[in-house]
Each structure stands twice: as C-alpha cells, then as structure tokens.
Amino acid sequence: MGLWKITDKGPSQVTESTIKREKLLEENLENWVEKDPLILGESLLILGRQVMIPDTKDKLDLLAVDPQGNSVIIELKRGKLKDPVDTQALRYASYISKWRFEDFENLHRNYSGKIGDTNYNFVSIYEAFCEDAGVDEIPDLNKDQRIIIVGSSVRDKLGSVALWLYEHGIEIKIIEIQLFKDGEEILIEPTVVVPLQVNKFKDTGRIKPGDTPWAVDGKSWHLEKRCSSKTREMLLTIDELVQQNFEVDGPVWNQKLYVAYRVNNYNW
Predict the structure, then answer these.
(1) Which helix (H) or strand (E) holds 45?
(2) When comparing pLDDT for 129 and 7, which is higher?
(3) Rounded-to-10 torsion of CA 41, 47, 49, 55
(4) Which terminus of the chain has a lower count of CB atoms within 10 Å, N or C?
(5) What is the DSSP letter of 147?
(6) Are the CB atoms for 180 and 106 separated by under 8 Å?
(7) Contact 99, 142 (CB under 8 A)
(8) What is the rounded distance in angstroms from the CA atom of residue 1 to the CA atom of residue 110?
(9) Could you tell me if 207 and 216 are in contact, meaning their C-beta atoms sit under 8 angstroms apart?
(10) What's the rounded Cα separation, in Å, for the pair 91 and 214?
C-alpha cells in the first residue's frame, strides 16, 4: 500500500526507490546495521565486520552474538538475494561453529580498537549485553549458530531453501529492505519474509481441529441435530418448566447425549 507522510496539507505518498537507484552499496547496508542492529528486528552485539575466516578465502560481512549466546552470521546484499548466498552463509556458519570463546574475544578486541588496553574486558561486555536484553542467566557463547541474510528482494529459489532450512531446525532469517525517498531523506522498511510471522488474527473465531460440535455450540447440536421437530418443542417446554419450578443453574448444553442442570454443584 506504500508509505505515506502526513503533512499540514494532507497525506502525501513517499516515493518508493531502490538501493541500486540511490547508488548505495553493500557497505551502506553494513554501516546501517553496524550502527544499530535493531534495524534487523532484534538486539545484537556486533563482534566484527568483514571477518576473515582463517585458512580460507572467505570473509563474512558482519558477525554478532544474540542474548541467547548464539553467534549470528549477517550477510548483506545490495541487490536481489539469490543463490549461492544461502550456501555461502551455511559455509560461514560451519566455520564459526568451531570457534572458541577466546576467538570471539580477540575478534571483538580488534574490532573495538582495544588491542593492548588493560581495561578491556570482553566477559563484562558480553554479560552487560545479555543483562540489558533481560537475560537473567548468562548463556555460554556460541551455543549455536544463526544466519541473517538481508537484501532488496528474495528470489523464489532462495526463499524455498531458506524456509526448508528453518523448518528443519536451522535458525535462518531472511529480511527484505524496501527503500523510500522523501526529498533528500532515505527511509527504509525492513520486512522479515522467512520465517513469516503468524497473523495474530489467524485463529480468531476458528473451530480448532478436534473441537466437537456439542462443545462448540451445544444448543444447536441438541435442538437441531439430535431432536426432531416434535421432541425439540418438548425439550424447550421441559427447560421452561424446570427453570420456573426449580432453583438450578443451566441448562448446560455441552455434552453429547444429555442436557444438564446444576443443583448444589452436581449435574441433574
């Protein structure tokens, strides 16, 4: 539906653009995420940028950790997300899975420019990050690995692979970045496309599998399904007589074979 700006003169639609059209680079995406990882929709502690993997020619865009102790491989693409970015990210995750605590510590020390700083304490930084995120018990670092891939749009092949990985227990998130231009200002709208968020209204009013008709609408069940037209009138007449002549709670319609009234906490 687009993005709208409300002004004194009324609504004004903001022009949609693209990363390519604005002549932005993957470096710009890295800058944005590095300065505020919340742009990806979660709290992350950035540990390094353009991280070289030893004994390989591979270099990942950003490496972070989440408050649950998982290392997070972040890959950013200026254009459409397509294969082999999925296998590339999986390769990076396999490398990082072998890292020890001190490997992350050394990476963050270099990234922070704290080489030789005797006051630098990675343990305190990591614990403070987890506590700020509301975690009471500090988790071990690199318990598992996660992948976040960011780009302007996702091709079907990558989306299919990513969804399959997610459904088989691999923590992967795909984020599309939509760009808007308002004068000289650039606005971005990140949207998670894998995994898709469940609509909060999806189950509103829905009869769940296994719900029986007498539990969902017992009155209709008894009067329309179990009674004939004659016995229906008889049942309604009995109900009226019971309620006029006895102190009862009811009727309770939610049983399959009978209608109940409550008398002194017992079914009648």
Answers:
(1) strand 45-52
(2) 129
(3) -130
(4) N
(5) E
(6) no
(7) yes
(8) 44
(9) yes
(10) 54
